Amino acid sequence: MSHGYNGRILRVNLSRGRWTTEEPADSFYRRYFGGECFVGYFLLKEVPAGADPLGPENKLIFAAGPLTGVPVGGCGRHSVGGKSPLTGGFGEAEAGGYWGAELKMAGFDAIIVEGKAEEPVYLFVRDGQVEVRDARHLWGLKTLECEQAIRGELGDSGIKVAQIGPAGENQVRFACISNDLDAFAGRTGMGAVMGSKNLKAIACRGCRRLSLAEPEAVKEIGRWIRDNVPVATQALQEFGTSRVIPGLNQAGGLPTRNFQLGYLDGADKISGQTMKDTILVKKRSCFACPVHCKREVKVDEPYAVDPRYGGPEYETIAAIGSNCGLDNLEIIAKGNELTAAYGVDSISCGGVIGFAMECFERGLLTRRDTGGLDLRFGNGPAMLHMIEQISRREGLGALLAEGVARAAREIGAGAEELALHVKGMEMAMHEPRWKQGLGVGYVVSPTGPDHVHNMHDSNFAKQGPLLQEMKVLGITEPLPVDDLSPAKIRLLMANNMWIHFLNSAVCCFFVMFYGLVGLERLSRLVNAVTGWETSVSELMQVGERAANLAQCFNLREGFTSADDTLPQRFFTPQASGPLQGVAPDADTFHKAVATYYEMMGWPQGVPSAGKLGELGIEWVAPLIQPKP
Amino acid sequence: MSHGYNGRILRVNLSRGRWTTEEPADSFYRRYFGGECFVGYFLLKEVPAGADPLGPENKLIFAAGPLTGVPVGGCGRHSVGGKSPLTGGFGEAEAGGYWGAELKMAGFDAIIVEGKAEEPVYLFVRDGQVEVRDARHLWGLKTLECEQAIRGELGDSGIKVAQIGPAGENQVRFACISNDLDAFAGRTGMGAVMGSKNLKAIACRGCRRLSLAEPEAVKEIGRWIRDNVPVATQALQEFGTSRVIPGLNQAGGLPTRNFQLGYLDGADKISGQTMKDTILVKKRSCFACPVHCKREVKVDEPYAVDPRYGGPEYETIAAIGSNCGLDNLEIIAKGNELTAAYGVDSISCGGVIGFAMECFERGLLTRRDTGGLDLRFGNGPAMLHMIEQISRREGLGALLAEGVARAAREIGAGAEELALHVKGMEMAMHEPRWKQGLGVGYVVSPTGPDHVHNMHDSNFAKQGPLLQEMKVLGITEPLPVDDLSPAKIRLLMANNMWIHFLNSAVCCFFVMFYGLVGLERLSRLVNAVTGWETSVSELMQVGERAANLAQCFNLREGFTSADDTLPQRFFTPQASGPLQGVAPDADTFHKAVATYYEMMGWPQGVPSAGKLGELGIEWVAPLIQPKP
C-alpha cells in the first residue's frame, strides 16, 4: 500500500446498521487521490441518476487525502460530498479543523454513508472499528452540547466530532456539517443530506501513525512551511481572513445589501483590524498549522458569544454583515455563533437573509410574512432571529430554508431577480462585477458560486509572489482583475485545476497556495509522503480529473449550458461607489465561459470522450450520453 | 534576458545577401522555447500557405534551445525545419554533434534563412557576426571535402560546419543536412530546401560562454548524468544503437525486404555486437555527452570506409541493410559512408531502394529501368550504386530521388502498394505490426513516420525503469506492445508530448529519457539553466504547443484525416516468422488514431480553438479555418 493512506475505506449502511471495509488497489488511490476526486468517483459510480438528494439512495462521503493527518501545516482538511439538495448536482465542501486527521489516525481514508437509519444514530470510529450508536438523546442539540455529550458518554475528551446541528436535522437545504465546533463543510447542503439519513454525528478517535515514505523529507518540508508560510501570510495570521475588508470596500468589492452595492460606510468597524482591537481573545489553528488564521472571540451581553465556537471569518462577516447592511461586529459575531450552533452555512444563510431583506424593502415580503419583524437591511436583531427561524424552519424561515432560488419562485413576481445564485446556490462573498474571472469561475464551478473552488483574481492583477507561483504552469503575465481575455481564462483554468487538486489532496489553499509553498514543493511533499515519484503535471491531472468527474455528475443530473450564467444583477453596474459603471458585458462574459469550456476540452460544457480518455476515466463517457 | 539563451535570432536573406538580428522578448522564449517549437512558430508566421518547399518563399530555420551548448550530456542538439519537399507539410529534424552548441557559443539561438542566393554561398557565423561567402568552389563537394575546404580557407580547424552534400544540391527530396560529418538533420528533406536556396553550408565558431542561472546546480546535474546515464545506457554505449538488432529479429520486428518480413537469417552479422567485434575502431559522442553511442568504423577494400564519417546507426543498418535484404556489415558501412558523403537521409534512402528492389523483383521495374542493374534484394553493390545514382539524380536515381510516393505514381499499376510511406515520407525502421502504438504514432506525427518523434512502445511493455519515468505523468500501468486500448493511446500521447518537448529543448532522448534522467530532474536542469521556476507541467505544455503548431501547419497546407493511415501492408500479417499472424485490425487502428486526436483536443485531427487557447496560441486558430 502506498504510504500516506490507510488503504481502507469504510462503508456504513445505515438502513441495515452494518459496516464493511474495502481495500482499493494502489492504482485507485493514485488515480482518484482523495477528497473531491474520491467524491466525484463514488457519486458517479454509486448514486443512481435522478436520486433524491434527501432520500436513502443518496450517499454521503467523507474523504481525506494522502496528506490529511500528515503533521505539516495545511494538511488538516477533509472533504464531504453527496448529491446536493440545494443544487440537485455535485455537492461537495471541504473543512479544516482536526477531524480529518483523526479519521486517518482512526484507520480509514474515507467513509461512505449509505441508506437511512430508522432512528437517529451516530458513528464512533476508533482504531479501525466502528460502532453505530443511538443518537436519539442527541437529536435537537446544538453542536456544542452535542460534542460535549458524545465526549462525555464515550469518556474521551480527545474525540473529534463531525456533526449536524438542528438545521441539518431539519434538512435546511444549506445546512452544513460542523467539526471541532469551528470548522465547516459549509456549502451545498451536506448537513441536510446527513440529517436525511438520521445521522447526527461521526466521532473519530485513533492512534494510528501514518506511514510516510520519506519521514525526514516530510519533516524538512514541514519545517520550511513552519518557518516561511507564517511570514508570507502574516496579515492573515494577525487579522484573520477579514483583513481584506478595507481593501475590498475601497475597490467597491464588498458585497453590501444583497449585492446592490460594493461598499459599506461602516466597513472599518467589521474589519480584521477592528476584531483584533475589540473582541478577539485568541487565534486558533487547524491540525498542525502554523498560520492560526482562525479567530476566537468573546462578546458579552446583550450579544453574548461563547468563545468555544471560535469567531467569524470574512465570508461570514460579509454574508450576514455587510450583505445584510450591518456594521456591528458584535451582532455579526453572535450571528456567527448561531450559524455554528445550529449548523447552517453562514454564506448561504447570509445570502438568503439579504435576499429576504431586499424583498421586504421592495414590498415583496411584508410584516405578515415576517411575523411582524421589520426585516430591513441593517436590522441586526432581525438577522439573528432569521438565522434561528431558518434553522428551525419556523415562520418565514421554513420558506427561506429552501434557499433563494426556491423561495423566490414561491414569492413570485419580482423576487427572482433578487435571488442571487448560480445553479441554486447562493453567491460567495466576492463581487463578480469586479473580479470578472472569478465571475466566470462561479459559473463553471460544479458546485456553483463557491469561493473555495475558484480564483481570487485580484491576486493576479500585478506581478507578485502569487503570480510567480503560477509560472510553473506556464502562466507568466499579470492580468487585470476586470479582464475576460483568453489569456485570463487560461489563468483561471490553470488556477482552478490546481484548486481542484488541492481539494482532492485535501490541502488548505491559504497555506499551500497563498502561503507561497509553491507547486513544486507541494509535489515534493506528495512524493515524500506517498513514495510515488509524481510531478506537478500528474497532480494537475488529478485536479482536472476531479473537475471532469464533478462536471459529468452535473450533466448526468440534467444540468445544461442554460444553467451557466450569473444573475442579471451582475451584468448591471452598481448605482454608486467605487465600482460605479463597472460590470462585464453579458455577451463577453458568456463568450468567456464558452472559451473556458473549450479550453477544458468541454465544448458547450460537455467533456469530450477524448478528454475523459486522456484522464483515464473513459468509463464516464457513457454516463453523459444524451438519452435516446 | 533569461539565462541559457543569447536572446538573439539571426535572420539571413540570401536573395539580398543581408542579415539582421532580432531580440525577442523573454516571454517569447519561455512560450516557444526552442527547436521544434521555434520551427512551428516561424513556419506558421512567416511561410505563406501553399509556398513551394523548394522555392524562395520557403524558409529554413536552424534552432537551438536553452539547453543547447550547456556542458551537460544530452544537450548538444539542434533542430532544422522548413516546409518539407517530401511531405509538403511540416518539415523538421534534429541533429546531434557539436554544431548546435557552437551556434549558441557564436551568439545566436536560431538562424532563419530566407530567399535564394543567386550563386552558391555559405555562411560564416562568428561571435555575433555573419559573413555570406562565395561557395561556388564548394558546390559539388562531398561533405568531408567541403568541411576541410571551409576550415582550410577560414584557417580554423575548430570551426563546426552544417552543410549539404551533392544530394542536397540536387534537391533530392530526402536530402539531409549533415553536421560534424557524422550527425544529421536527416528526415523530411531539409537538405533539399537548403540546396534550393543555393546555401552550401553554415560554418559556426564562437567563444561566448552561456550564462547560467545557477551554475553550481547545472554542474551537479551534469555530474549526475555523467555518473548515472552511462550505467543506464551501458548496452547503448558498448554496442551502439544497433544493439537492438538481435532482439528485434527474434520478435519479428526487424524490417526486412521492404517490410515484407520482420526477420533476416543473417541478422547477427549486422548487430552491434558484430560491429564491435569487427569493424569498430572508436566510440564517438556528441557535445559534452558521456554516453558515446556513436560509432567510428574502418573497412578496407573493396568497400573501403573512411573512419572520419563515423559509422552506421541502427536505423541506417536496417534501412540499407535488412530492408534491402542485406546482411553484409562492410557493405552497409560503405553505404552509410556514401549517404553521409552525399548528404542523403539514410532511412528514406534505404526505404526507396527497398521499394525499388521489390518493384524489380515483381517486374514493375526492369533492367531497362535500372540501366542493367540486377536490383534484387541482397545485392549489395547494387544498393551502393543506387545511393550514388539517387544523390546524383542519375538514371533510375532521378525517379527515386523523388521518394517512394512520387516514384510509385510514376511507375504505375501495382507500385503504390509497395510504396511504404505516411504523408509521403518513408517509414522509420520500426515495425508497426508489432509496435502498434508506434504505428499510431507514425500516423499522428506531423512529420510522418519518424522514430525521433515517436514512442518505442516495446519499452513500456513491462514494469521497468522507463515506465517508472512515465509515472510522473500519471502513466502507471505497463501495457503490451500490440495494444491499442485507450490506456495505451494515453501512454502514447503523454510520451509524444514529452518527446515534442525534448525536441524543443533540444535534448537527446537517449540521454534524457532512456538514460533515466527523469522528467523532474530535467525540469530542474531547465530551472538551473534559465532561472525560470518551471515544472514538468509547463514543459509538457511546451511539447503540446510544439505538436499543435506542427499539426496546424499541416492542416493549413491541406492535409486531412484521409492522410492519417498506414500503408495497407501493415494491416496484413507477415507471411512467416515470429510475427506471423500479427497485425492491427484496420478499424481498431483507425479508432485508436481517432482516440488519440480526441485526447489531444483535436477532433478529426483539427486542434480546437479551445486547445489552442489553453496553450496560449489562439493566434493560430484563424490559420486553420476552412476556406469559405
Write up what this structure looks like:
Two copies of one chain form a homodimer. Helices cover 40% and strands 12% of the residues of chain A. The first copy, chain A, folds into three domains: 9-205, 4-Layer Sandwich (Aldehyde Ferredoxin Oxidoreductase,  A, domain 1), CATH 3.60.9.10; 240-419, Aldehyde Ferredoxin Oxidoreductase Protein, subunit A, domain 2, CATH 1.10.569.10; 436-624, Aldehyde Ferredoxin Oxidoreductase Protein, subunit A, domain 3. Chain A is α+β, with helices and mostly antiparallel strands and 628 residues long. The longest helix of chain A is centred in the C-terminal third of the chain and has 21 residues, at 536-556. The two termini of chain A are 43 Å apart. In chain A, the strands form four sheets. Chain A has a six-stranded mixed beta sheet with strand order 2-1-6-3-4-5. In chain A, α11 (314-321) packs parallel to α13 and α18 (436-444) crosses α24. The A-B interface holds A 27, 30-31, 468, 471-474, 476-477, 486-487, 489-490, 493, 518-520, 523, 532-538, 540-542, 595, 597-601, 603, 608-611, 613-614, 616, 618 and B 27, 30-31, 468, 471-474, 476-477, 486-487, 489-490, 493, 518-520, 523, 532-538, 540-542, 595, 597-601, 603, 608-611, 613-614, 616, 618.
Topology:
The structure is a homodimer of 628-residue chains.
Chain A: E1 9-13, E2 18-22, H1 26-32, H2 35-46, E3 60-63, E4 78-83, E5 90-95, H3 99-105, E6 110-114, E7 121-126, E8 129-134, H4 143-154, E9 160-163, H5 166-169, E10 177-179, E11 183-185, H6 190-196, E12 199-205, H7 215-232, H8 234-239, H9 245-251, H10 272-277, E13 280-284, E14 294-297, H11 314-321, H12 329-342, H13 346-361, H14 367-370, H15 380-392, H16 396-400, H17 404-411, E15 421-422, E16 425-426, H18 436-444, H19 465-470, H20 486-505, H21 509-514, H22 519-530, H23 536-556, H24 586-600, H25 609-614
Parallel strand pairs in A: 1-6, 7-12
Antiparallel strand pairs in A: 1-2, 3-4, 3-6, 4-5, 7-8, 9-10, 9-12, 10-11, 13-14, 15-16
